[in-house]
Structure to design on (1321 residues):
């Protein structure tokens, strides 16, 4: 059967489990868009290509499936870079298909030509520039496979206009040759039994063990195995920002988030533990603080599917290159019970003595709004955040009981991620209510996608915690620059409720703390997107906080607190 | 650029922080505005902007727009635009703007924060390899690893950005460099970079050959591009055209390089150029390209472009010459300097026959559109009316799409730097932030962004920036509820299969303007057009005028992609008129 | 410390960008890089000499293996591999010094490729140690121009009989 390049891509996307695309058409991708229409491939037209990438990212994080992003050449492609970089840092799969000028004109600075291939090398797991239509079938298959297997990540297929229309013989059943790569990034390595034995020995010996569970638990589908292991071995569990939902937030063993804005008790547990088991986390700088002072007394075990993560930042005693789920399954059959009442008692006391807290002063406290969202949604929603203070409060105050119920930009910290990611998350899991907790600065960066939510009537509930500031930067300026608020203030904040209405979306402006709950309840009832602009206390800070570059034990608990953990 | 004679205080080097060194270096380069968005790694530098007033920081709502504002500033002022963003997403958000500046040769310097050198490569929080990503879209880029390199690199960056063929330069600034300390003294002497010595003076023998060719030509055409504007060579072009009696056509980026009201002007050439410009180029025996690059949107099918002409190409970038087609007389040099030398050699000439021919083209194949009484507003008439009301002194920016082409066709642009558009990259969402930058550069001018609804929607969050700083930019939206240019291609070449181009659910722009604290107006009646434009112009502050136009209108003339310019479609083939084809015209 | 990485990659356009881009973005230091086809036309061997802390060198190997087009990464050990580099150097050698320079060239098995009144251009190949001391010896006369290919390397095949390499 003879098919065009565009038809082959559609066929292969379908055959490899890609069910939806997000994107914007343009000159150099037009033949492909024509095929999208003819084949009725599901597609969501966004307002900015960056939004399309974040939508695909959000979609993947809640559904475990991969979506395509389709853009034109030049600016369409360069507009995806931030979204790809974000997905790369957080190991989220995306298959981006970017139009390119026709192959004979590549390199001549043609209209809307950009070196997408070169620009996207640092931000993808792999990328392809397809110059020959005969390679296309294999490339699309490989692209989906590379994006979704091992440690997931984004890939780019740069797709010249002439290749989109070129015809070639196509056999859907044909086996394409796949390059044999050196490393098990594309294969799942077996856990090393010796290392597992050593881990079991350490576990036996340990009086004060702690687990850090990262995003690997979620991507590896190992939440149930983790819960079983932690409960039977009685080990407290800390979730990284991206690991949230990997362990039930309601479990007494749950300690919340570690690091810079982690809970005091999580950081205290890290400082005192004698065995630290990191499952699918990458010891990010925001987690460890000063590496030399991180978990000083602990034997460190690190399980990761990516060999390059083992020992990258923290010296590891027992590195295990494997799928976390395989390791946990082994541990669940082999680990023996041990009484750790003393340690659990100590941890309990910390939780009691140093809880997360905030003061009441009659203003709307952002933490309060988040608690109310938790209650109104009964913890059953999918929760998304932008980047900034609100993100930290959401991670602190929401309780996630299921994996894939929390979507946030971790490694890259991309402001503007929230709204498009919410749209993608709703598309990926339409059965769950989607709540976006965003800041005014972060929301401003991508609010153009309200048009997308309105067009397709995608019912995302958007809570803007509006403090008229780039709050996180302001907090640093308050604490470290004597309140010199340089270029973080938005004195004339737009009326976000009115903006929403301009898009035909329901908007609420909430200035009174008594209206918070009722507004959220109303929003939950509306069948469609809703924007709630909460005028929160402008100078509220995120506590606790470990100053950048300090050890986790130097955490400050609050504004007045000179008390430091030791 | 270089320091004046040194004083003793200049000689004594002081130890300063990295942030302080950057601030001083920017001051020495004459930077007035810096467009940016803060982030944690930049705090020490941002702190200086608060304390001092020499350089004003403009807080944008998205970093992409910071880059476009810097571009708009540079394009309107002729200076270097500067932007400053944080590491990670702040930096990656700049890439589209940087690429846009690279394609259109716009001098901007982008300062990006970076994580500390000790953790570079570790996937630290908000780390991105911006230097790697921008290697192919900047003229040059730097990752500063040593304090000693900081001041010299900034100086070099500005030098590279503004000299030769201008372009974007990026400097990646790790946090420890901003916090570090080093001795600083005001640099002296010319910047000297071993691998970078742009040639500005044309070769005398080539210049002589150019003058001779002009003298011998019967049917010459001047084809001027953005390089004329960068080199500030408009006067020289006008002088040459007048003396040697040569009609002048321009590229999209060359609009304003030659006054459109001059009788020698032919308007824009190429894909959506005027029929008479394309006909003149098709027939000419000498084509003098100045600071233009024979882009695919200009030449159409290269092998059939200006086939009867001897080609002269004057450009500062030797790699631009002969890149897309063979050139008989290449001249490498600065357009202003080269044209001055040529003008010395060119004698007055009259070309009555040639002008008669060109006038005939103009009479027979003018730009046309049909506006019916009581019918919808035609985008072309909206632009004509805007042009009349705004007068010749206004600065126009455009977004990308149909409206951009209509603006290039119908606006009267009399001065360089008064028409600002994204040419090479064709970046939707460029015009509005560029207008903000242009307005800051030229506060005395009326600045109007001619926008399409699809483009404006990409960046409308910057309304907040215009309101915060009271920047009186007027947004003139030709609203056809769709991605019109793509729709046009689908209409003509894809059997009207309109795949994913409908933006029926658009925002209510008037309400949106109000939500941001600005004024707005919505019109759809032809009779409201002029009064609404007048109101927009006289209302102080930012303003959105949402003009609902005929969504079915297409841009003509049009050269189908890959076709020869002489095969341009003159008017709407859907309207069952005889298809005008230039090739059907009898030779004289 | 320094390490020789022998990297077998798919022979595609763009592979070198992926490899060199990795070194650049992770801040790894490259001393030399050489690439060329192998016995298999579908594969290219890139040999990179890098330096850094031991952990960094381990990271380099891991990160390289993550690249899609990288088929094999070997960290070569000095006594279990053969390494060679080609050096071209033009050395100042007036009539009175020429004999000395030619003697040095001879001692190192270098070929003379050009002689002028006051210079000698020679080519020499050898391992790291040899090229280093040759260059050092020539520097006394003044090297006016030099080009080096960068190191190429292959591991020795394992011996079949019992054999302990010297430490």
């Amino acid at each position: 059967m003879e098919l065009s390049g565009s038809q082959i891509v559609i066929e292969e996307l379908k055959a490899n489990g890609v069910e939806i695309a997000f994107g914007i058409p343009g000159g150099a991708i037009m033949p492909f868009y024509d095929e999208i229409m003819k084949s009725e491939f599901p597609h969501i037209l966004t307002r900015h290509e960056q939004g399309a990438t974040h939508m695909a990212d959000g979609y993947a994080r809640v559904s475990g499936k991969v979506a395509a992003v389709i853009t034109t050449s030049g600016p369409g492609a360069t507009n995806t870079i931030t979204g790809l970089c974000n997905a790369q840092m957080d190991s989220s799969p995306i298959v981006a298909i970017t139009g390119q000028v026709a192959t004979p004109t590549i390199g001549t600075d043609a209209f809307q030509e950009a070196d997408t291939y070169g620009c996207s090398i640092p931000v993808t797991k792999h990328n392809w520039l397809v110059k020959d239509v005969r390679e296309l079938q294999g490339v699309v298959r490989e692209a989906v496979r590379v994006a979704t297997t091992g440690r997931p990540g984004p890939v780019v297929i740069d797709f010249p206009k002439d290749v989109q229309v070129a015809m070639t013989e196509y056999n859907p059943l044909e086996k394409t040759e796949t390059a044999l790569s050196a490393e098990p990034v594309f294969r799942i390595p077996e856990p090393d039994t010796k290392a597992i034995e050593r881990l079991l020995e350490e576990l036996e010996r340990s009086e004060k063990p702690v687990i850090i569970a990262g995003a690997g638990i979620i991507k590896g589908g190992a939440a149930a195995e983790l819960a079983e292991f932690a409960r039977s071995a009685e080990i407290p569990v800390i979730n990284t920002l991206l690991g949230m939902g990997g362990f039930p937030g309601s479990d007494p063993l749950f300690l919340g988030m570690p690091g810079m804005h982690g809970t005091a008790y999580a950081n205290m547990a890290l400082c005192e533990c004698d065995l630290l088991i990191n499952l699918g986390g990458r010891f990010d700088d925001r987690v460890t603080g000063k590496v030399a002072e991180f978990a000083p007394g602990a034997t460190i075990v690190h399980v990761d599917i990516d060999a390059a993560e083992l020992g990258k930042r923290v010296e590891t005693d027992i590195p295990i290159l494997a799928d976390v789920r395989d390791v946990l399954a082994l541990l669940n059959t082999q680990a023996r019970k041990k009484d750790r009442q003393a340690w659990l008692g100590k941890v309990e006391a910390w939780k009691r003595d140093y809880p997360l807290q905030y003061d009441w002063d009659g203003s709307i406290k952002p933490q309060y709004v988040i608690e109310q969202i938790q209650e109104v949604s009964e913890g059953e929603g999918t929760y998304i955040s932008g980047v900034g203070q609100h993100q930290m409060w959401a991670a602190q105050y929401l309780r996630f009981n299921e994996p894939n119920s929390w979507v946030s930009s971790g490694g890259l910290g991309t402001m503007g991620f929230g709204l498009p990611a919410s749209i993608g998350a709703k598309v990926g899991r339409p059965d769950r209510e989607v709540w976006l907790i965003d800041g005014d600065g972060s929301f401003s960066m991508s609010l153009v996608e309200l048009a997308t939510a309105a067009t397709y009537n995608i019912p995302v509930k958007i809570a803007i915690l509006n403090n008229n500031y780039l709050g996180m930067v302001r907090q640093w300026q308050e604490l470290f620059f004597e309140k010199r608020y340089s270029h973080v203030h938005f004195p004339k904040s737009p009326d976000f409720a009115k903006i929403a209405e301009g898009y035909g979306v329901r908007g609420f402006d909430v200035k009174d703390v008594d209206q918070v709950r009722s507004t959220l309840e109303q929003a939950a009832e509306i069948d469609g997107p809703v924007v709630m602009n909460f005028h929160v206390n402008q100078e509220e800070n995120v506590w606790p906080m470990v100053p950048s570059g300090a050890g986790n034990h130097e955490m400050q608990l609050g504004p007045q607190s000179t008390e430091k953990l030791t | 650029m270089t320091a004046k004679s040194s004083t003793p205080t200049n000689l004594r080097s002081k130890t300063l922080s990295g942030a302080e060194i950057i601030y001083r270096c920017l001051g020495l380069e004459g930077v007035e505005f810096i467009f940016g968005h803060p982030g944690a790694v930049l705090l020490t530098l941002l702190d200086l902007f608060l304390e001092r007033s020499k350089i004003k920081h403009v807080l944008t709502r998205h970093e992409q727009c910071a880059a476009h504002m810097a571009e708009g500033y540079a394009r309107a002022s002729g200076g270097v635009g500067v932007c400053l963003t944080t590491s990670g997403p702040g930096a990656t958000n700049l890439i589209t703007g940087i690429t846009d500046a690279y394609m259109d040769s716009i001098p901007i310097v982008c300062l990006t924060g970076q994580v500390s050198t000790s953790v570079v490569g570790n996937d630290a929080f908000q780390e991105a390899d911006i230097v790697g990503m921008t290697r192919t879209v900047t003229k040059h880029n730097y990752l500063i690893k040593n304090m000693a390199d900081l001041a010299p690199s900034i100086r070099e960056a500005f030098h590279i950005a503004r000299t030769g063929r201008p372009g974007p330069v990026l400097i990646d600034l790790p946090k420890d460099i901003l916090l570090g300390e080093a001795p600083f003294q005001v640099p002296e002497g010319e910047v000297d970079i071993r691998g970078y010595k742009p040639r500005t003076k044309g070769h005398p023998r080539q210049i002589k050959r150019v003058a001779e060719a002009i003298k011998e030509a019967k049917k010459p055409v001047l084809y001027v591009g953005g390089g004329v504007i960068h080199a500030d060579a408009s006067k020289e072009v006008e002088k040459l055209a007048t003396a040697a009696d040569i009609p002048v056509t321009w590229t999209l980026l060359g609009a304003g390089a030659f006054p459109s009201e001059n009788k020698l002007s032919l308007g824009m050439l190429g894909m959506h150029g005027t029929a008479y410009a394309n006909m003149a180029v098709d027939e000419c025996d000498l084509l003098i390209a100045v600071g233009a690059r024979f882009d695919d949107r200009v030449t159409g099918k290269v092998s059939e472009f200006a086939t009867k002409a001897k080609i002269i190409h004057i450009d500062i970038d030797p790699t631009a010459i002969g890149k897309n087609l063979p050139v008989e007389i290449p001249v490498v040099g600065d357009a202003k300097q080269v044209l001055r030398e040529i003008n010395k050699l060119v004698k007055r000439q009259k070309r009555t026959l040639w002008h008669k021919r060109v006038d005939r083209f103009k009479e027979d194949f003018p730009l046309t559109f049909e506006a019916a009484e009581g019918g919808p507003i035609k985008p072309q008439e909206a632009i004509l009316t805007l042009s009349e009301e705004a007068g010749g002194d206004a600065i126009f920016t455009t977004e990308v799409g149909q409206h951009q082409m209509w603006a290039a066709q119908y606006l009267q642009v009399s001065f360089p730097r008064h028409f600002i558009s994204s040419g090479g990259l064709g970046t939707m969402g460029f015009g509005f932030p560029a207008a903000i930058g242009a307005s800051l550069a030229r506060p005395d001018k009326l600045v109007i962004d001619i926008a399409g609804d699809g483009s404006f929607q990409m960046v409308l969050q910057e309304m907040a920036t215009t309101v915060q700083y009271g920047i009186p930019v007027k947004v003139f939206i030709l609203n056809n509820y769709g991605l019109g240019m793509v729709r046009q291609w689908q209409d003509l070449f894809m059997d009207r299969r309109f795949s994913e181009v409908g933006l029926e659910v658009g925002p209510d722009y008037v309400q949106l303007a109000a939500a941001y604290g600005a004024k707005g107006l919505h019109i759809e009646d032809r009779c409201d057009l002029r009064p609404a434009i007048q109101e927009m112009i006289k209302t102080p502050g930012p303003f959105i005028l949402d003009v609902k136009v005929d969504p079915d209108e297409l841009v003509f003339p049009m050269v189908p992609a890959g076709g020869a310019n002489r095969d341009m479609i003159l008017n709407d083939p859907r309207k069952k008129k005889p298809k005008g084809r230039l090739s059907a015209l009898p030779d004289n | 410390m320094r390490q020789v990485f022998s990297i077998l990659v798919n022979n595609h356009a763009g592979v070198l960008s992926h490899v060199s881009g990795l070194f650049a973005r992770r801040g790894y230091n490259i001393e030399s890089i050489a690439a060329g086809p192998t016995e298999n036309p579908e594969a290219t061997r890139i040999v990179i000499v890098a330096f850094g802390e031991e952990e960094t060198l381990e990271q380099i190997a891991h990160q390289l293996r993550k690249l899609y087009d990288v088929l094999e990464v070997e960290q070569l050990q000095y006594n279990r591999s053969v390494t060679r580099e080609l050096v071209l150097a033009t050395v100042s050698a007036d009539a009175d010094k020429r004999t000395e320079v030619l003697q040095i060239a001879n001692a190192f098995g270098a070929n003379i490729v050009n002689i002028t009144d006051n210079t000698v251009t020679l080519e020499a190949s050898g391992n790291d140690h040899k090229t280093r001391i040759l260059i050092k010896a020539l520097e006394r006369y003044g090297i006016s121009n030099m080009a080096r290919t960068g190191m190429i390397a292959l591991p020795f095949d394992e011996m079949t009989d019992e054999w302990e390499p010297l430490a």
